[in-house]
Write a structure and sequence with these properties.
- It is a single chain.
- By secondary structure, this protein is an all-alpha fold.
- The chain has one domain.
- Helix 3 packs across helix 8.
- The longest helix is centred in the N-terminal third of the chain and has 38 residues.
- The relative contact order is 0.19.
- The mean pLDDT is about 90.
């Protein structure tokens, strides 16, 4: 192998490794900061927090695409395409808000256990909405995914019914959005890459979330300003949290682009486990053997489901 070829390969490997580290840091960082702000900091405004995330995504997406030209700019070509994107944006808002609300009541470890059931909801929505059938082995692999969460729920010392319902709802909405995206933007002329889709979805989300936050969280401005005056780093934490939310979307796209969707899926399974361990160490939430066993079963089910889908395409 020529020296230049070897150096290029090393640089590429270093670049991909750096991307993966940044992807892990952004995803786990935004999750832990969400938990810290919503449960440990007195900032009890999940809708407003989601609006901050979407505002950062709107501004930074515009800068990344229009000025930095990370990906080519794609225009919306019709009113119907805009309405489809708006529909996706509302569903996406519901999933993020639901997830943030659940973090007020549930530990990150249990939140991640429930979130790992996304493949179950995706398979169900795909079955009923598109009549897409998978091999029977694929559906069998979903049994431990659900069973693991049932077991983990029974062994969760900090179980909260409302938080659990919101977490399940957020997980279902996330799966619904992915299936809906495949249906609404399936034609070649209307397909958008994930970066351009975020560019259009984020501003719509802000428009939806702003009145919702003011109506459902009426004291958000007063409490946020008070917390900002009381805690020196309040605004910095909120800003960092919002930037991380965009970074998670950006690195998700870049890791998929430079590796593969399968690699991202494998990394995602490991990310959940890493997030659980870090959250337990940071927040010291109690865990039981039953909870760990249930979560482990869910993760193994997700891995088996991914492998079954790959083999029986």
């Amino acid at each position: 192998m020529a020296p230049n070829t070897g150096n290029a390969a090393k640089k590429q490997a270093l670049f991909i490794s750096s991307l993966i580290v940044l992807w892990y840091s952004s995803n786990i960082g935004v999750l832990l900061l969400n938990k810290f702000l919503l449960s440990n900091y007195g900032f009890r405004f999940p809708i407003f927090l989601t609006m901050c995330h979407m505002t950062a995504c709107a501004v930074l997406s515009y800068l990344s695409i229009v000025f930095l030209k990370i990906v080519p700019f794609q225009r919306i070509k019709s009113k119907s395409q805009f309405l489809r994107i708006a529909t996706l944006s509302v569903v996406f808002c519901a999933s993020v808000v639901g997830g943030n609300i659940s973090l007020r009541y549930l530990p990150v470890s249990f939140n991640q256990a429930v979130g790992a059931t996304t493949p179950f909801f995706t398979a169900m929505f795909a079955y009923f909405m598109t009549f897409k059938r998978e091999a029977w082995v694929t559906y069998v692999a979903l049994i431990p995914v659900v069973a693991g969460v049932v077991i983990a729920s029974g062994g969760e010392p900090s179980f909260h019914l409302y938080g659990f319902i919101m977490c399940i709802s957020a997980t279902a909405a996330r799966a619904f959005k992915s299936v809906l995206q495949g249906i609404l933007l399936s034609s070649e002329g209307e397909k958008l890459n994930s970066m351009n889709l975020m560019l259009y979805m984020a501003p719509i989300a802000v428009v939806v979330l702003l009145p919702a936050a003011l109506f459902m969280e009426p004291d958000v401005v007063e409490v946020t300003v008070t917390l900002g005056l009381k805690h020196t780093f309040m605004w910095l934490l909120l800003f960092l949290n919002s930037v991380m939310a965009y970074s998670a979307n950006l690195t998700n796209f870049l890791v998929t682009k430079h590796t593969s969707a399968l690699t991202l899926q494998v990394l995602g399974n490991a990310k959940g486990a890493v997030a659980v361990v870090i959250s337990i160490l940071l927040f010291r939430n109690p865990v039981t053997f039953q909870g760990i066993a249930g979560y482990s079963m869910t993760v193994m089910g997700v891995v088996a489901y991914g492998e079954a889908k790959r083999r029986y395409k």
